[in-house]
Amino acid sequence: MYVMGVESSCDETSVSIVQDGKTVLANIVLSQIDIHKEYGGVVPEIASREHVKGITLVFDQAIKKAGIRYEDIDLIAVTEGPGLIGSLLIGVAAAKVVAMNYDIPIIGIHHIAGHIYANNIEHDLEFPCLALVVSGGHTQLIVMKAHYQFNVIGETQDDAVGEAYDKVARVLGLPYPGGVKVDKMAAIGKDIYHFPRPMLDSKDYQFSFSGLKSYVINMHHNMEQRHEPYEVADICASFQEAVTDVLVKKTKAAAEEYGVKQVIVAGGVAANRGLRAKIAREITSVPVCFPSMAYCTDNAAMIGVAGYFKFQRTQKADDYTINGNSRLELNGSFDKIEL
Ligand code: KG4
Ligand code: ZN
Question: How far does residue 268's CA lie from ligand 1's centre (Å)?
Fold first, then answer.
């Protein structure tokens, strides 16, 4: 089964061709990073315009790279939300045009389901499994008992991890996208500040990163005002240690409580080397999987994989009323399971 994946929820225009929910025949990603860098973050209106400019080319390149014809596609899977509404609408509209033109069924995918299914490309999901979702917009722990069944057992009460990384990076003068720069600096710094670990000892799976973010920003501000010397690398290392301590401790506790067979890490922050090392070191009772770096951040291969499994489970496509939904809920799009 050939699934065409389409992703445009933020600042990457991406189209993929995935065979049988596993083999990536093409995954074209047109990144807008260099354009948004100038502004220190994604500018929604510019993102929409860039999607419009690039999307037709990305569709054609994916088809060419995969060596198939549009007529060969069995299903189109498109990110319907959450994300920037203008960006989403362009991917959804373009996907609908192709679907109508070639009479291909179309299915809407939740962006986070896509991030989770990025793990099925190089591994096989094994149930029950626990997904730690860490992206620019989400921080969640999700238990899955079967394909395409998601149960959110905890999530951030304020900022997402990626968002906190990006804001700390900005204050430290590191260029957008900040997360990856903080990660690089952390590798050469030391945890000399021992920042607070928010909600580390709460007996639930909720998170909070806004207080930690403000703590780091305020400390930096005060040091600047007093002309105190400091190393950016040490601030990065201290921040990263605090964040990863909380993420890993809660993930480990949830894996034990729910007796999962596998832990998977999903979303842009899954690319974080500090997190990858700590979680692999701390969780040894079950296998821990990460997508390879190219599938951690936004891409359409993950949407194609998720589309295959959603279709297997529901056995039905959407109709042409499918639309972008910037606030789509993960549990709202399909069945919730009793744990
Ligand atoms: O999943 P993603 O590509 O987009 C969303 O769905 O939000 O995640 C982007 C986020 C950004 O906040 C970015 O700074 C962060 O992932 N990120 C990282 C790393 N690489 C990307 N954060 C920490 N360490 C990294 N290596
Ligand atoms: Zn994402």
Answer: 3
In this structure, what DSSP letter does residue 189 have? S
* CA distance linking residue 35 with residue 43, whole number of Å: 9
pLDDT tens for residues 259-289? 999 999 999 999 999 999 999 999 999 999 9
For domain 125-290, give the CATH superfamily.
Answer: ATPase, nucleotide binding domain (3.30.420.40)
Q: Which residue among 269, 292, 295, 299 is best mutated to probe the pocket of ligand 1, counting the most ligand atoms within 8 A of its Cβ?
A: 269
Ligand 1 atom 24: residue of nearest CA? 272
Q: pLDDT tens for residues 56-103?
A: 999 999 999 999 999 999 999 999 999 999 999 999 999 999 999 999
Q: Which residues, 6+ apart, have CB-to-CB distance to 80 below 8 Å?
A: 88, 92, 108, 109, 110, 322, 323, 324, 325, 328
- Say what the pTM is: 0.96
- Assign domain 2-117+295-333 to a CATH class: alpha beta
